[in-house]
Amino acid sequence: MANKKRWTPKEEAEISRIRQTTGVTRKTAIRKMRAAPKVKAKVKAQKAKPAAPKQQPMTKSEIGSARSEGIRLFKLAGRPTREQFILVYGERGPKMTWEQRAAAGVPAEKFQAALAEKAVSRPAAAKPARTTRQTPTLPLAGA
Questions:
Q1: Same domain, 78 and 38
Q2: Are 15 and 7 in contact (CB under 8 A)?
Q3: pTM value > 0.70
Q4: Is residue 84 one of the residues assigned to a domain?
Q5: Residue 109 covered by a domain
Q6: Region 69-82: what's the mean pLDDT?
Q7: Confidence class of residue 125 from pLDDT cuts 50, 70 and 90?
Q8: 88 with 114: CB under 8 angstroms?
Q9: CB atoms < 10 A from the CB of 94, how many?
Q10: Could you count the other beta carbons within 10 Å of the beta carbon of residue 20?
Q11: Alpha helix segments (H runs only) across the chain
């Protein structure tokens, strides 16, 4: 059997205070007392973190102007498809903003040039052969 721990008078007072305030058993009070320094450290760590500045919500006019700017850049880039965005910018391409795409190295103005570099060019004559045959027309029975 393990040796019993001798509590200091300060610890005994803390245990009895926890028991009286929360109404728990001695065993639970001891566990709460042992866990208290960890909880205090977490609280201090949370207080030490600077609060992130909250962004001001955009007004309707700001939202509209941002949207129109995005549409303007989309047109400038040649109205690319989702597959073209993925080809040039990678998997996250369609979800990026135009600012993020420009930071990635390809602004809207240079999108078509980057697409031409990355795309595998196929000549117009190299279309895939038709796999279905047209059924011949049969004469109608009553005609």
A1: no
A2: yes
A3: no
A4: yes
A5: yes
A6: 94
A7: very low
A8: yes
A9: 13
A10: 10
A11: 9-22, 26-48, 60-76, 82-89, 98-103, 111-118
